[in-house]
Design brief:
- The chain is of the alpha/beta class.
- It folds into four domains: 95 residues, Sandwich (Immunoglobulin-like); 91 residues, no CATH class; 266 residues, Glycosidases (TIM Barrel, Alpha-Beta Barrel); 92 residues, Golgi alpha-mannosidase II (Immunoglobulin-like, Sandwich).
- The chain is 27% helix and 22% strand.
- The chain contains 15 helices and 30 strands.
- An eight-stranded parallel β-barrel has the order 11-12-13-18-19-20-21-22. An eight-stranded antiparallel sheet has the order 28-27-30-25-24-23-26-29. Strands 2, 4, 5, 8, 9 and 10 form a six-stranded mixed sheet that branches.
Amino acid sequence: MPMPPETTPKKRARAAAAPVASAPVVPAAPTASAVPVLPMPEDGQIRAVIDAVLPQVDAGRFAVKRVVGEMLAVTAHVFTDGHDQVRARLCWRREDDSAWQELEMLPQGNDVWGASFAPEAQGRWRYTVVAWVDHFQSWRAELKRRIDPADLLLAARAGADLADAAAARAKGEDRKRLTAWAKNLRTRAEAVGKTTIDALDQVTSEIASIKTLALSDDLATVADLYPDRRHATRFAGEQGLPLVVDRLRAAFSAWYELFPRSAALEEGRHGTFQDVQARLPYVAEMGFDVLYFPPIHPIGRQRRKGRNNTLTPEPGDVGSPWAIGAEEGGHKDVLPALGTLEDFRTLVQAANAQGIEIAMDIAFQCAPDHPYVQQHPTWFRKRPDGSVQYAENPPKKYQDIYPFDFETEDWRAMWAELKSVFDHWIGYGVRIFRVDNPHTKAFAFWEWCIAAVKREHPDVLFLAEAFTRPKVMHRLAKLGYSQSYTYFTWRNTRHELMEYFNELAHGPGADYYRPNAWPNTPDILNEHLHDAPRAVFMTRLVLAATLAASYGIYGPAYERMEGRPREPGSEEYLDSEKYQLRHWGEWRVDREDSIAAFIATVNRIRNTHAALQSNRELRFFDTTNPYLVAYAKRDADGRNAVLTVVNIDATFTQSGFVHVDAGWMDVGGVGSYVAHDLLTDQRFSWTDGANYVSLVPSLMPAHVLKIQRSDA
C-alpha cells in the first residue's frame, strides 16, 4: 500500500527546503532609474487621427510624379474617438514656398476623405493632410438631434460661445455677422430661459425658431471659414510628402531614334549634323516630337569593334558609339566626323523650330583611350595584372569599354565631373537625356545627380534605359528618372499584354513609374520581328503607341521593317548600325517599302485625342477570340474615349465579339453609339454589350476607334 502523504520522499524534500518563517515576502520597490518613463506627446489634446494618406511612395521616402496641370487626387483615413465631428484639408505648396494652399477634403464613406489639386508649375512640391476635431460642427450635429426644450436652450448658448470664438478669428464683415449671430442666439436663449418651466409650452414656437437660427447653413458656412485648429494634426510633419512636377513631355511623347552617322544623303559617306538637319522634316511628318541620338562623342580606337561586333576591325571601321573617348576628347566633345559643337547647337535649334526636341544618350563609360583613363586612373577598377577591367555581362564582353568604379576613394570628384556632363549639354539646349544602363551605376549617385540637375533646370527629363529586374527598374524611377523603358518588347500574347499594362497603369508604381514602350532598339531585334511581315510591324506599333502614352522606335530600321537577325535566335541585327555605317536611301514617308505613312497616322491620332496621352485610364475588355486584344482609354474628364482592337495574329483573319463596358465609355444607356475607326475612317454602329469585329492583317490589323454618342 502507498506510503502516507507526509512521509513521501518528495514531500520531505520540499519540507526541508521550505523557509521557517511563513510571512509573505514583499518585493522591494524598484528604484526610479529602473523604471523607463515614456515621454508624453507635445500636445495630448490632439485627438484627430490621419492614416493611410495616398498616394505616397515608400512612406514619403520618394516623390510622387505628376505633370503641370495634372490632378493629384489625395485620399486619407481621418477619424477621432467618440462621436465628435472631424474636418480635414488637403495642403500643398512649392518646396521653396513657406505658405500652404488649402482645400477642404470631403468624406467619401468609411472614414475616407478626399480632395484634388493641380500643380501649376514645374519643380518640387510638397503636399499633406491636416485634420482636427471641429467643435462647431460637433455642436451642430448634436443640436440637430436634440428635442428637449431645456437642452436646446443650453445648447443654443453653447453655440453662441462657439460663434463668438469664430468671430474672434474672423475679420471684416464675417466678424460682424458671426458676432451678431452669437449675440442674437444668446439673447433669445437667455430670454426664453427665464420663463418658468410651467410656461415653457407657451414658447415652443420661439424655441423652434432659436433652433432654426442656430442651424443656419449660411452662418455655419461663414463659421467654417474660421475653425479652431489649435489641436490640429498634420500628416508627415511640417514638410509633408514630396511631389515632382514635370512638363507634359515627361508623360506623353513619341521618340524616334537614328544614328547621325547614317544620315548621309549619299551612300558611303559619313553622316553629319547637317545631314540630320535635312532629315528633320521627315521626322516631323511622321509626328515624332523627340529625336534621340546614340552617343555623338569621339569613338575610341583602342580595342575598337569591327562590323557585327567582331574583335578584328578592318581599316575604316567606325566602331561603336558607346565606346566613348579618344584623343579628340570625351563626354563633352563631339565626333569630328559629325561636325562641331556649334553645328550641334544649330541642329538643336532647328529641331526645336519644327516642334522636335533632341534627346542625347549619356553613357557613363569610357573607351581605353578616353582622356579620363589617363587623367583619373583611380576612377577605374584594376585587374590583378594591373590592366583596367573592361565591361562584361557574361557571356557578353565589351572589350572596348571601361566602366567607372563607383567605389573609388575619389568618388566625390567623379560624381561632380559626371554631373557636369549633363550641365555641359544643357548649355547647348538639350533638355532630354536617355541614360544608358543606369542600373550599372550607383543608385546614390543618380538620386543626387538627378535632383541637383532638376533643381537648377526643372524642365530637364531623364529616360532610364534599364532592361533589368523589375525592382531595380522601379528603384531608378523612384530615384528621379522621368521615364523608364519597359518589357513591352517581350510581351506578345493577349494575356501577357493585359497583365503587364494593367500593372503599369494601376499597380503600385503608377504614381512614379512612367513607361516608355519600344518595339525595337539598336540592341534588341525581338524574335517576334525576325523576317516578319508588314502586319507584325504595324501591330507592334499600334500596341506601343496606344497602350503607352510614351513610346519610341529605332529607325529607319523599324519603318523599313528591318528584321534580319545576326543569326537565328539572336536579338542582334545583321549588319548592325552599332558597328558600321548604313545607307537608307531616300527618307520619304510615302515609300512603298515603309510603314512611315501608317506611323504618321497613328501619331496624328495620339496628338489629337487626349485619351491616348495618359496611362491612368486604361481598361481591357473581354473578347471571344484570344487573338483579339481590346482595350480603351479615356481622358481624366471622361469626355474623350478611344477603343483599340488589335489582331495579334499576323497571318490569319481573326474575328470575334468584343464585350464593351459602354457605361465606362460614357455611352451607356443610349442604345446605339458610333465607333469611328480613325485609321480607316470607317464608322460602325455599336450597342451596349457584345460587338462583332473582324480584322484582316494583310489589310489593317487593328481598329483605333473613337467612341461617341449617336446624337453627338
